[in-house]
Amino acid sequence: MNRVVISLLVFFIFVCLMISVSASTWTSAGNFCVDGDCGESNGNINNPNGCCVAGDSVWVCGDGKFVQYNKSTGAYISSFNYAHDEGICWNGTHLWCVDGDSAYLISTTGSVVSTIANLPGGGDCRGIAYDGSFLWVASRNSNAIYQCKTDGTLLRTIDVSGHTHNAGYLDGLTWDGTHVIYVSAVSNDIVVVDMSDDSELDNFDPGSQSYALAYDASTEIFYRTSAGFYARVYYYTYPYDTSAFEPSSVTNETYTLSTSGTSADITINWTKGLNSNYTLIRKGTTTYPTSIYDGEFVYFGTGTGVVDSGLSAASVYTLWSYNSSGNWYGDPVYLNWTASWINVYNESDNAAISNWNIEISNSDGSQVYSATNCNNSLIVNLSDLPTGDDIRFTFTHDWYDTRTYVLDVEDTISLDAFLVDSNSSLAYLLNVIDDLSNPVGDAKVIVKREINDSFTTVASMLTDANGDCIVYLKPDVHYIVTINKSGYDNETADFTPTTVVQTKTFQISYSGIDVDITDWLSYLDITAEMTSHDILYMNYTDSLEETNSVNVLVERWNGTDFNETVYYYNSSSDTFTNHTNVNSSYGYRVNFTIDHDTFGTFTVSILVNVMNTSIADKNDIEDLLDTILGDNDLGWINLFSIIILCACLFKFGEDGVGLSLLGTGFTFLFLNALITGFMVSTLLPILWVVLGILVEWRDARRRFG
Known about the structure:
- The protein is mainly β.
- The chain has six domains: 23-242, TolB, C-terminal domain (Neuraminidase), CATH 2.120.10; 246-335, Immunoglobulins (Immunoglobulin-like), CATH 2.60.40; 339-420, Carboxypeptidase-like, regulatory domain (Immunoglobulin-like), CATH 2.60.40.1120; 425-511, Immunoglobulin-like; 517-608, Immunoglobulin-like; 618-704, no CATH class.
- 13% of the residues lie in helices and 45% in strands.
- The strands form 13 sheets. Strands 23, 24, 26, 27 and 28 form a five-stranded antiparallel β-sheet that branches.
- A hairpin with a 4-residue loop joins strand 10 and strand 11.
- Helix 3 (636-652) runs antiparallel to helix 4.
- The chain is elongated and about 150 Å long.
């Protein structure tokens, strides 16, 4: 009787212990075969040592092979051979595998990316898992699990030798977002670790020997592998809700900036998020780190404040709260600290310049910051800095020519400016035009020069209404000029200034419809014509319907130029017809100045009733001859008249002096009137005529005297 009671009591205690340790339900959800003995060629792995979930796939390794399967159907996808096949996990882009005392990061085709040698635990590591930040490895030798960085640095050790269902020979290992889970190859039990105290939280006996474990967070399905005849991958619904361990974000983040010479210190304080016991801070130079691996490490600990000292350039910070029990990170928080670094260097040798001056202003001058006698680095809080588009930074120095930089300022900036020695530079006029040779105003011109083996911006400016800007450059130095403006395609050109030519014109093209700008006639119908009743009609039609405005200016020809305005009209319509009374005895020029979404701003000029009225003058002819023959201070027309006169004198001798003078003078006056429409526009032919008359009069007196 006593023996029966004692036996029942022992059995009751045993059942209670089992219930207390294993109270969760792991429900089978299916399996698929990975062994060729299953009757199909499905990877042929008899001894699957490791498995992991990667998106829609399950990877299984063993027998020197890595095989990819569809996780829903078990269908074979791909495979490659690789010897280190004792364990496997997925980091989002690559596979980590483990063998002995080393871990290997490999691609999905087997290419090795990196290696970790001398893992903790004394070797014989069979399981590996990745938690989104760090690696976990299980060692048979030490009967322990280790957390380490991806460079092998040890962070944490979990001794599992005292777990009830661990009989040794740790094999598979996985991470469910909250817990480490391992398999004991001796007892065949799968054990869940309580991360708060490293104790055994739960166990599961699958009924057959297991070698590999994997967890799919997207479906909450747990995977294991069996070996031997008909090796398979089994999967189960997982009983744990891991979301309760996720921490909330950091709050109340603040900073204090202190400067010292050319560097600064920033003190950051915060309140830790709910359910978090650590805070991670990383920084970037121009963009906020968006993952726990981006940028540069600043802090990881249990405190609520840190000093980042010795800063020599602007930085931006991201803070994450962290729950170490579940290895959960909260949502990132971005610290908007607002100081900017400005340095000035010599363009020629990249040496730092001292005692420079700076003025920073917005386009209308309503925001201005200035400082004098500055040295590198000038640290400026954003609260003191003008902000917005096209902020102009102007640098001056007694020994250097002025340089400007035009930047968009909304947040922190780091600007390295370059000045050029006044004794070795010249001022160059850069002009920007469009496809119709019209000036382009407010175009940003960026000038770069090779400094320290890379092309660096040495100036940036905006063009004025004439499309012009002035920059000081060193002659015979190779620069790259980039021009950009909204509505136009960016233009980049090489430019080597010389001491002879100190102007340079750049052309930029309109962006928009896929046509050459000179084909605007295909879309715009522009005409001007005069009727027999002295009425001038002006017509405009835009088939694209993208016209912003049209200014019509009618000018009358006065014999030498179109300098008399007789009519002006403005319209914002895509089509119009207008007219005005004119005098058909005169010629006219009709100028259509058009502001268009696709073609920009340009002018079309139409000549009306000027077919018999030349618009050339003596200066036009002289300019043409100068272009062809070179400059001539005497004037090419005068020189030709002298040459012809000399030829006539040589031909007719002293008896034909008067006729030579008269013939030369009248010939050039006739040509002048024929070409320019104006009888008297040069004095030398008139002089020849007058002298010819006097000589003939003198000769007549001699003959008849």
